[in-house]
Structure formats: C-alpha cells, structure tokens
Design brief:
With about 400 residues, the protein is an alpha+beta fold. It folds into three domains: about 140 residues, no CATH class; about 90 residues; about 130 residues, Histidine kinase-like ATPase, C-terminal domain (Heat Shock Protein 90), CATH 3.30.565.10. Helix content is about 65%, strand content about 10%. The protein has a five-stranded mixed sheet, covered by helices on one side. The two termini are about 60 Å apart. The relative contact order is 0.07.
Length: about 400
C-alpha cells in the first residue's frame, strides 16, 4: 500500500484542522497531566519529570512549526526519533508517560510510510508496556494487571484502524471531488460547444442572407446603372448640361454600389472561422497535423472534396483538434493519422493512433476523461454518428460521420 501523504501536502478541510488541533491539545494535556501529578504527589523525580515534559513541549512545537518535517519523510522520521527519545526518558522518570503513546501513534502513522508507521506503533506500544512494568512494584504502589498490556496494544490497534479508515474516506472524497470537477468541466464544455454551434449557425445564416440579398441587390443596382448609362443618347447637343449631370450621378451611383458590394463580400468572408479562413477544411487539417507536437501525425484525403457548410467544417475541425490533443496528452503514441473521407451522401473523419489505448466502457468524462462527450455532442448536433474504438495496449480510433446537407450534394 502506498504511503499516505503528509498532512501539509493535503488541502486542509475544516475536519482536518479540528483533528490536528485535537491532537495538539491531547499531547499538551497529557504532558501537563504528567508534570502536574509529579509535582502534586511529591514524586522524588518531580524536577526531572517537569524538565523532560518541557523538553517534549519544545521538541513538539519545533516539529509542528517546521515545514520540512511535514514535506520530507526523512525530516519527519528524524523529528519522531528525537520525540521518541525524549518520551523514553519520560517513561524512565514517570509511569504517567505511558499515556503519551496514544498521540505518538497518530504522528507515526501520518508521517511515516504505512509499513514503517505500523512498525513504529508496535515499538511504541512495547516501550509503553516496558516503561509501565519498570515502575510496577510495591515501592511504587503500582500493581501489574492485564490492562497494562492490553491498553497500549488496543490503543495502537485503534490508532491504526482510525488512520486507515480516515485514509479510505479521504480517497473516496478525492474521487468524488474529481468526479464533480469533471462533470462540471464537461457541462461547461458542452454548453460552450452548444453556444459555439449556435453562433456559427447564426454566422452562416447571416453570411447566406447577405450574399443572397444585399450582395445580389447591389450587383443588380450596378447592372441597372450601367444599362442606364448606356441608354442615354449619345448626341447631347440639345441639352448638354443635363446629359453631363446624368452621367455624373450615374457614375457616382455605380462607384457607391461597387464599394458597398466589396464591403459586403468582405463582411461575408469575415464571418468565416479563423481556422478555416485561409483555405479549405482539408488544408486546415493538414496544417493541424504538421503543427502537432509529440507523435508523427499524417493527414490523408479520400474521395472528391466538396464545399461544406461552415458548421460542418467547424465541427470536423474541432473534433480533429480535440482528438489529436488527446493523442498528444494521453495516448503516448508514436504515430497518428487523420483521414478525411468524402462519400456520396456523407463525410467521415477518422483519427487513429498506435498508443496504449484505454477501456472505453470505464473511461471517465470531462476534461480528465479525454473530452469524448464534447466531441460526441458536436457530431450529434449535426445529426452525425460518433464512435470510439480502443482497448488497453491496442491504440485508439475515433470516427465521426456527418450526413451531407442537401445543398452540398
């Protein structure tokens, strides 16, 4: 079993803070009890008991306030060794040092690896029993009973069980926290994908409307003005001023129509996503493969390329980007290939790698789960089919098939 993380490396929850404060209070209270009893009972070694208790307080506070003790297992072990040596001295001068074994159990289990922590608990229990037996006898007025043996052993067992139970609960809490974070990330990613799809659909609609109405209207105006210019009589000797003014107005109208037509076309081009504005989808995918870090990525095109609506191109490009990012971050692959296939009534994108793969059935969701839900959502929004084929040690294949819209057939 792996070693538990030190308390300083864990995020402190309110429960963790309360438990830590309780441990400090227990240690201080037991030391105060041992020193107080030695003074009030007039023990022959009362001075030594108080001095050793003061030394233990100093050592304990020094370890608590030293960050290296909680970050470094070696420093933690050295601190426990010093604390244990001072505690052994307390056992020699006072039988009340026996009770200090219980907080020591928790310190050993938290700061040491589990197997070493359990061994330290066993040694501490044996030292506690030995110290108690060393003070038993008629002169000290202490009678040896089975409880003298069972108490430290049961205390050690309870400490081990408590720490193991706390670690199990902590791991379960961490898994739940990670799951919640992944679900929140997936929900945010899906919402962003839906917003992006809506924005792109609206952009395409605006571009189509501008192209089909405003741009066409301006082109028609320009043609009509040209026709009007040609229809003017060439012989304008009768009314030369009217003829010149008409030609000037027609020329200015043609210039205005030409300028606005060019502006409308620039506006339509500006509505294209940045990744696709410098060429086709195939060109964007080829650039994506050439710029990918890590494994060698090859792009191939199959079938006869055709123009696709902007939402289709954006969805395929984003899915390719997400799948390739998974290959780079998670697959540990040496090679990968992106294939874009145009068929009679559909277009297919395949992303295949030779990485270590994963179990599709048990794959998590969200950012930590390879972003599969977001890719699936993009495909299904356009009525497509999204599939993932993978197994441990056998690579991964991601495929998305989108039916072509009627205007692209």
């Amino acid at each position: 079993m792996s070693a538990p993380r030190s308390p300083a490396s864990r995020p402190l929850t309110p429960v963790s803070r309360v438990l830590r404060l309780c441990l400090h209070a227990l240690f201080a209270g037991l030391l105060a009890l041992a020193a107080g009893r030695a003074v009030t009972d007039g023990a022959p070694r009362a001075g030594w008991v108080v001095a050793v208790c003061a030394l233990l307080v100093a050592l304990y506070m020094g370890g608590v306030l030293t960050p290296a003790v909680h970050r470094s297992p070696r420093a933690g072990a050295a601190w426990l060794a010093a604390l244990g040596s001072a505690w052994a001295a307390l056992l020699v001068v006072s039988p009340d040092g026996l009770w200090l074994a219980f907080p020591l159990y928790f310190l050993e289990l938290h700061l040491l690896r589990l197997r070493w922590g359990i061994a330290a608990v066993a040694v501490t229990a044996c030292a506690a029993i030995g110290g108690f037996l060393g003070h038993s006898g008629p002169a000290d007025g202490i009678v040896v009973t089975p409880g003298a043996f069972l108490g430290p052993l049961l205390g050690g067992a309870v400490a081990v069980a408590t720490v193991l139970g706390y670690q199990a609960l902590y791991r379960e809490s961490e898994r739940r926290r990670q799951l919640i974070e992944e679900l929140i990330a997936t929900r945010a990613e899906l919402a962003a994908a839906e917003r992006s799809a809506g924005i792109l659909a609206e952009r395409e609609r605006l571009a189509r409307e501008i192209h089909d109405t405003l741009a066409q209207g301006l082109s028609s105006i320009q043609l009509l003005l040209r026709a009007a210019e040609r229809s003017l009589p060439q012989d304008a000797a009768v009314r030369p001023a009217v003829h010149a003014v008409a030609l000037e107005h027609i020329g200015r109208a043609r210039e205005a129509a030409q300028d606005n037509l060019a502006e409308a076309r620039r506006f339509v081009r500006a509505l294209t996503p940045p990744d696709l504005e410098h060429g086709s989808l195939a060109a964007a995918l080829e650039r994506l493969c050439s710029a990918a870090p890590g494994p060698r990525v090859r792009f191939s095109l199959s079938g006869t390329p055709r123009a696709l609506p902007t939402p289709y191109e954006v969805a395929l490009l984003r899915i390719a980007q997400s799948a390739l990012a998974n290959v780079v971050r998670h697959a540990r692959a040496g090679r990968a290939e992106i294939t874009l296939t145009f068929m009679d009534a559909s277009v297919t994108l395949d992303v295949v790698d030779d990485g270590h793969g994963f179990d599709v059935c048990s794959a998590p969701s969200g950012e930590g789960g390879f972003g599969l839900p977001a890719m699936r959502s993009r495909a299904e929004t356009l009525g497509g089919l999204f599939t993932v084929e993978s197994a441990p040690g056998q690579g991964t294949a991601v495929a998305v098939t989108l039916p072509l819209p009627l205007e692209a057939l």
